[in-house]
Amino acid sequence: MSNSETAVIERDSDREEQSLPPTFEALFTQYRTLVQHICLKFTGSPEDAEDVTQEVFTKIWKNLEDFQQQSSLRTWIYRIAMNTCIDYSRRPWKRFGPRRASLKKPAGSARPSRNSSLPCAQS
Question: Which long-range contacts (CB under 8 A, 24 or more apart) does 11-17 make?
Fold first, then answer.
């Protein structure tokens, strides 16, 4: 476990001793970039990645007390992010990939006819 992970857990355990809940902000600040990169790489869309990132941090927050420290916190968060991305991709109304506004061709983008001469074919 890295020093920064230990610091987050220690701060949270100090807060528990004082009967205060652990801070979401500390987890979010430290792991937001990691989670966003995973989600963006998986989804290919910044909008979908943002949705999945929010869902990941919701799951992290809800299950933080179940973290058993058998692995590093970073590994645990990585696994939650990957599993959430996989679950998200299985939803029938969400398909990842580039978003297309329209399938219509813009005006003036007609393909050249077969009879038109190509510059590279002239000798």
Answer: none
Ordered by where they begin, the domains of the chain are: 24-97 (1.10.1740.10)
Range with the poorest average pLDDT among 27-31, 35-39, 54-58, 92-96:
92-96
Distance between CA atoms of 70 and 75, rounded to whole angstroms? Answer: 10
Reported pTM:
0.60
Q: State the pLDDT at residue 69.
A: 86
The total number of residues shown for the chain amounts to: 123
Per-position DSSP letters for 78-112, written without gaps between them? HHHHHHHHHHHHTSTT---S---S-SSPPTT-PPP
Q: Please, what is the end-to-end C-alpha distance for the chain in angstroms?
A: 68
